[in-house]
Please model this.
Amino acid sequence: MNKSFYDQPWPHATIDDLIDSKTIQWIQQKTINDDNQGHYYADHYIWDGNGLTIENTGKDIIANLDDWFTMFPSHNKFEEYEMLTYVSKQSAGHRYPIHDEHPYKCLSFVTYVYPEQGCGTSLYQTENDQTAFDTIPWQVGRTFVFAGQTGKTWHSYESGPNTRITLNHFVIKKGELMSFKH
Model:
């Protein structure tokens, strides 16, 4: 596993192969040719009949949660946590504007699934920046990790000319799961 940590414009990391290639290929097979756009939630969508679900793709994250908290000491702190996991699929030309993070999010893990060449995640110093400070390069299997902070962790993403598929794991405040499902 190749991990790289960065401090600017705010603390974040990239990890290659946090999610194994078999799981990435499995998600691609289930979603690329599906007409659905939006979110595939773990509790009612993808599973293969053999126990592989998108929900259990985050088991290594949960098993090492204390290590992640140490790597990102500025994370939002709560008494208890739970994991929101879903696959997100946006059509070609989709652009999600500059935004910060929900106050109930603690850690975000966004793994790039499809296409082979795509647009990464753009990072900004402020909400009003016209140009990204940096962009996380797209690479299938790369996970972008950060501890979201309201008013600080400004970022945006777009699909570019292709459909964009990501696997998302969000460590959130326990009891707030439904506030994230839209």
